[in-house]
Amino acid sequence: MSDAMNSHDMLNDKELLRYSRQILLQQIDIDGQLRLKHSRVLIVGLGGLGSPVALYLAAAGVGELHLADFDTVDITNLQRQIIHDSASIGLSKVDSASARLLALNPQLRLHAHRQALGNDSLAAAVTAVDLVLDCSDNFSTREAVNAACVAAKVPLVSGAAIRLEGQLSVFDPRRDDSPCYHCIYGHGSEAELTCSEAGVVGPLVGLVGSLQALEALKLLAKFGEPMVGRLLLIDALGSRFRELRVKRDPGCSVCGSDAQ
Ligand SMILES: [Zn+2]
Known about the structure:
Layout: H1 13-18, H2 20-23, H3 29-37, E1 40-44, H4 50-60, E2 64-68, H5 93-104, E3 109-113, H6 119-127, E4 131-134, H7 139-152, E5 156-162, E6 165-171, H8 181-185, H9 195-198, H10 202-221, E7 230-235, E8 240-245
Parallel strand pairs: 1-2, 1-4, 2-3, 4-5
Antiparallel strand pairs: 5-6, 6-7, 7-8
Helix pairs in contact: 4-5, 4-10, 6-7
This protein binds zinc ion (ZN).
The site of zinc ion (ZN) has 8 residues, from helix 8.
Domain THIF-type NAD/FAD binding fold: 19-254
Keywords: ATP-binding, Nucleotide-binding, Nucleotidyltransferase, Transferase
Pfam family, one: ThiF
């Protein structure tokens, strides 16, 4: 993915073995695995969505993960935030997650953002990576992450889950036809509610986070058809998946032609 890739890059025997089951897929192969190795990814939020996202991307051999979360692990997190455990209570989520991820894959390179990211630091954090996953739980963070991704032309994999409903989409500012998060959600909804207020079931955030990780691998290794221009709606109660087409809003104040 990054410019560091050249013909001298190779996978060593241990890497070939560790990633053999996905290298077997013709859509990934050695080239896709090398792209993952040279990819840098920012994960915003290490909660219910960020847990499976970080674990699966680390396991898949994404070379560099940038972890952003200013929170500490609380006992009420453990019902769904499976990267943390009982011994992590009171630790920063970034530190707790880092230990687990390095135990899983010692070759992983990690960058920690333990403070809340303001506009400038968020812009710098987004510019430093190839892809961003929004695993946060609130509307204002989602809006800020989206604006930074649009400005830096960095693709964004967005997931959300609350109560018994989940949503997933991919916004790719490198494409003219892609909407941004604000095109779809900018007019407000019940998005201000968070899981701590409304409740959520663990496997649902696991499902949405796993789909986010899958979309990220597709974008980074360049295979398949990403969910750009499509919004997946998951109804956990009825076990139903529905897909909506979503379009770019030409008047969008973030990605539209009149945006500042
Ligand atoms: Zn937009």
